[in-house]
Amino acid sequence: METRIRDVVSSLEINVDDVRMIGIKGMGGIGKTTLARAVFDQISFQFEGKSFVENVREESKPFLSGLKSLQKQVLSDILNDQGVTVSGVLDGKNKIKKTMRARKVLIVLDDVDNTNQLEALAGDPNWFKSGSRIIITSRDEQVLVAHRVSLIYNVNLLSDTEAICLFSRYAFGKEIPVQGYKELSEEVVEYAAGLPLTATVLGSLLCGQDESEWKDAIKRLQTIPLKATMEKLELSFDGLEDDHKEIFLDVACILKGWGKEDAIRVLESLGFRATYGLKVLEQKSQYNL
């Protein structure tokens, strides 16, 4: 995590006097929010105003009232004034522009999945005073590209070493497994498959449990998936178009491990627009042959 934090902070170049938007992209449960929060906590003292807007995807629903509420949150955070009023999305845009031009701000927009959300909350760099930084986390690279976010940091799955370290912090309170639990920890980390969310949840669940309880929990995971992980992955799957859901299932269940060109040929024989479909899945962090 420390390396990832340093990479993002370096990309922000806080001492450069420009307005910079950067994206943090990756699949659900991979640690985008955790990374953004760590960066925010580390650098926010260097700004005249700050706002961390969590879960934009869900909080922006219903569309107009949700966006208006998020605009009010940003303004309230930056001005440190809970009495801010926003009569509508257009009014919110105008107030954000007027407010942000007067102060250097740090804003994090977490879990964005639609350009409308960005247009309402951080429409254009010229809304902001020089020196401001806007960090946007998303599962969908195309949302970032469409908003002209030129610098996108891709959050990758944890290596085995990183996963053991993270899991152990939650299971044992230190960065290596305690004596007698090394092999069991490796089994759990193999199940987590590099997802930080899964590693941390399982570490917390197994903390303080004895060896027999660990073994029973590991056997349970072989037949009953971890709910926290499934909820994150289902959210991404549910947001796909119907034909892209079918492509995803074919890739996950049948074509896993195939070369890209071979997969495209098979999918096209089934009537799918495979080149575009695989690109969409890749941008939404749902596919990697």
From TrEMBL:
Q: Which domain of life is it from?
A: Eukaryota
Query: Is the keyword Cytoplasm assigned to this protein?
Result: no
UniProt cross-references to Pfam families, sorted A to Z:
NB-ARC
Q: Which GO terms of the molecular function aspect are on file?
A: ADP binding
- A GO biological-process term: defense response
Q: Which InterPro entries match?
A: Apaf_helical, Disease_R_plants, NB-ARC, P-loop_NTPase
Q: Which UniProt keywords apply?
A: Leucine-rich repeat, Receptor
Q: Does the keyword Chloroplast apply?
A: no
Which intervals hold domain NB-ARC? 3-174
State the name under which the record lists this protein. Answer: Toll/interleukin-1 receptor (TIR) domain-containing protein
**What is the species listed in this Swiss-Prot or TrEMBL entry?**
Artemisia annua (Sweet wormwood)
